[in-house]
Design brief:
alpha+beta; 13-stranded mixed beta sheet; about 35% strand
């Protein structure tokens, strides 16, 4: 375990070397993700509400269930603190993540002009950033059309990462993004699935992004004594990149993320799964 984490300090030095420019969120797309290859404790195939933030040059794809869960938990936590403080009782609490362990902790960021993909993994409240290969997807666009919630779409197919995919994209919505790592069609990908529909990104809604759509309950960055390094607890819980996109309509790479390789990410995830407490201890250096 000790040898695994000796790279942490060195990795942090390079965490600010990415230079992708922030982009304004123009729209939010909801998907319901179904994975028939993955079953929950009740034996049912896993499904999860996901959210795609789309800008002119960038997109960010993450778990909407995770966002809503952490916001709800923070509200409960603050209510308990207020109640305990009012009663003169201790304010220490045990955080139970049982209900959220199944939720996706990975965020996918795509920058169109630079044709760069980044995968951010969130482990024990620390963000790890991996620059992934933005491999070309050789889409074949057909003349087949369908309409989803009034949005006219056209069919495209491709083999990508070992699976045959079908995607329905909207030529009238000129974003080259989509769920997960699917991208580079001449229109927003509204729905997508593999050939056996084992993996399915089902369209669940589209809305324009407007300032003030979502606000933090307690924004400490607005305090007079806040400094540039101040950030909110909710941003730490959902990831600062997700917080920027959700609350401020800005897509940017996560501040303070540690640059990491695929091999290192696999090792860290495996180490955390085997010994969460040991991982956190090694991470903190104590």
């Amino acid at each position: 375990m000790k040898a695994t984490f000796t790279l942490f300090i060195a990795l942090t030095i390079f965490s600010q070397s990415f230079a992708q420019n922030p982009d304004k969120v123009l729209a939010r797309v909801n998907y319901t993700y179904f994975d028939k290859t993955d079953t929950l404790s009740n034996g049912k195939p896993r499904s999860e509400n996901m959210l795609l933030f789309v800008g002119k040059n960038a997109s960010l794809y993450t778990s909407y269930d995770k966002i809503r869960h952490e916001i709800s938990e923070e509200q409960k936590f603050r209510a308990k603190i207020a109640n305990r403080v009012g009663n003169g009782q201790p304010t220490a609490f045990i955080i139970d993540d049982t209900d959220s362990k199944w939720m996706t902790t990975t965020t996918y960021l795509y920058f169109v002009k630079e044709d760069k993909f980044f995968i951010k993994e969130f482990i024990a409240l620390q963000s790890y950033l991996l620059e992934d290969d933005a491999a070309e997807i050789k889409w074949k666009i057909s003349k087949d059309t369908l309409t989803f919630s009034g949005i006219p779409c056209q069919k495209a197919t491709a083999n990508y990462e070992g699976k045959n995919w079908t995607a329905w994209f909207a030529p009238t919505i000129p974003f080259q993004s989509g769920p997960w790592k699917l991208h580079s069609l001449p229109g927003l990908i509204i729905e997508a699935y593999d050939e056996n529909k084992q993996l399915y990104f089902q369209f669940a809604g589209l809305e324009d992004a407007k300032p003030g759509d979502h606000v933090r309950d307690h924004d400490i960055t607005k305090r007079p004594d806040a400094d540039p390094n101040t950030f909110n607890a909710i941003d730490q819980l959902i990831g600062r990149d997700v917080g920027n996109a959700y609350f401020e309509n800005i897509i940017r790479l996560p501040i303070g993320a540690i640059k990491i390789t695929k091999q290192q990410l696999v090792k860290f995830k495996d180490a955390f799964k085997k010994d969460p407490k040991g991982f956190v201890k090694a991470q903190s250096g104590h």
